[in-house]
Amino acid sequence: MEFGGRGVVVSLVYVSVLRGVCTTILMTFLPVYAVSVGLELPDIANIIAIASAIGVASTPLFGFIADVIGRKFCLLVSSILLSLANIVAFSVNGYLGILLAYILFNLAINSWIPARAASIASSVGEESMGTSFALLSLSFQLSRMITPFVSGLLIMLYGYPIVFTLASAIAVLAAVTTLVLVPETTNNTDRVFNLREFYRTLVPSKREFWFLVFLSIDRAGWRLWIPILNSYMKAVLGFTEDIIGFVNTFRGISSVVGVLPLGKLVDRHGWFPAIVLSEVLAIVAVILIPMTSSAIIMTLSMFFIGLSIASWVPSYNVAVSTIAPNRSELARTYARANFYRSLIAIPSPWIGGILYSIATTLPFIVSTILFTVNTIILVLGRTLNRIK
User: Fold this and answer.
1) For residues 272 and 326, what is the distance between their CA atoms, to the nearest angstrom?
2) How confident is the model at residue 126 (pLDDT cuts 50, 70, 90)?
3) Averaged over 64-82, what is the pLDDT?
4) CB 170 within 8 A of CB 22
5) Which of 73, 98, 294, 383 has its CA 20 to 30 A from that of 62?
């Protein structure tokens, strides 16, 4: 543990708990808030697609900055952007406010992911990497387990501005915690920005290609429906905010229950079995959604979504770390993986909105097909030794 792995993991756990509260409020209720101010689901899908495109475009730059300037710097910037997203959501009226909030939120996520992953991967050994990523995910999912229901009740009692302001304050606290507790893990302080080196951030190696194909299809399948799922519950199923929060809580519960055992599975048997399991669980979850208008069945679907995420986090992060050219380029490798899978998925919310306009169940049907095909691609790729 070159940089004191335990200290890095523990400090990031504290930050992740705080960010988990703020991020969960935005992920759960920003699309619901958009419905409450008069936006239609296709409008929301278009906003998400635009904001995603901006976030994706920023990903290679954030990965490069994290490796060259500092991973701690990117983590700090991310929490500041997250705080601003909450404030903008209600302080700027209508379509523009929702768009700006989504843009800031996407920038916050895309600056956080490569810096966080690289901080962990450069600080712990391979024998404990899966568990370390699982522990970090656990801290985030603990926040997700309680936050949706509680924030849904608070919104019903006090309104969106109060809850979003509270979330913004929590994000500021996360930034302060990062500044005080999180150690710097970047060892490239002698390096400076140049265009040739930045261009290398965008170029995948042959070793990465088939895995990037798998990642891209997976992300595209999720993004067809997951951004508008809570809006779907509000507009189609007629769920109130407290019910939406309650249902989302079970997504957090299953992730909390499953993430550490699945992280240990990755440490013992490698990333491949866990990532296949993640795809299978995603298929089960998405099949259940259009089958009912019952909150009970929707809760079951969210439970499987949570397990799928719990299986994905350690397996994906360990897999990407194994294909990094060297330890000094970890953030760029994570950024590259996130860039290409997100790039392919940019039009997915827009396509999902179109599919929804044709038939409300169509985004879920298409997603099921994509997940199934993707699982076959992954297994075949592994069998043919094209994914190492």
Assistant:
1) 21
2) confident
3) 90
4) yes
5) 98
CA–CA distances in Å: residue 262 to residues 135, 138, 222, 256: 11, 11, 21, 11
Nearest to 310 by CA among 258, 238, 350, 386: 258
Nearest CA to 227 among 87, 56, 366, 28?
A: 28
Which DSSP state fits 325?
Answer: S
Q: What is the pLDDT of residues 255-289, one digit of tens each?
A: 888 988 999 999 998 899 999 999 999 999 999 99
| Chain centre distance of CA 90 | 23
- pLDDT of 174 > 50? The answer is yes
Termini Cα distance of the chain: 24
Q: How confident is the model at residue 387 (pLDDT cuts 50, 70, 90)?
A: very low
Selection from 217, 189, 216, 171 nearest residue 20 by Cα: 171
Q: What span, in angstroms and rounded, lies between the C-alpha atoms of 36 and 48?
A: 17
**What is d(CA 80, CA 100) in angstroms, rounded to the nearest whole number?**
14
CA distances from 140 to 13, 15, 17, 62, 326 (A): 8, 9, 5, 22, 28
- For residue 250, give every residue at least 6 positions away whose Cβ sits within 8 Å of its Cβ, in sequence order, or none: 299, 302, 303, 306
Q: How far apart are CA 188 and CA 182, in angstroms?
A: 17
